[in-house]
Amino acid sequence: MKGILIVDDSLFMRRHLRNILIESNYREIIEAENGMDAIHKYKIYSPEIVLMDITMPVLNGMDALKEIINIDPQAKVIICSSLGGQQIIIKEAIKIGAIDFVVKPHFHNLVTIVNRHFTLNT
């Protein structure tokens, strides 16, 4: 199994997401603390799924999403954000190439969404 790349500037949030995924038997988890780091790690690891925050320093999630989709048009990026005005952000992210979204901090459906996309096209 290819890994999951968690992209969030909050170490707490990355650890929290990691723990949820580990409890569901996902073991290959990579972390990035900003969009630039995410692009770099995507190129190295080619993860199966990317969980991408939107608001981050250095390079935000929307710009990182664009770059990852440019690198790999088949990339599976799930937006994971707590932004207000989510509908606009989510629509824009889907238009760019994101495949789904999770609203922080409500992760009750995170594993269901990740499982759904791991089984697609494999």
UniProtKB/TrEMBL annotation:
The entry's keywords: Phosphoprotein
Gene3D superfamilies, per database record: Aldolase class I
Response regulatory domain span: 3-119
GO term, biological process aspect, one: phosphorelay signal transduction system
Modified residues (4-aspartylphosphate): D53
Membrane spanning stretches: none
Protein name, entry field: Chemotaxis protein cheY
Organism whose genome encodes this protein: Schinkia azotoformans LMG 9581
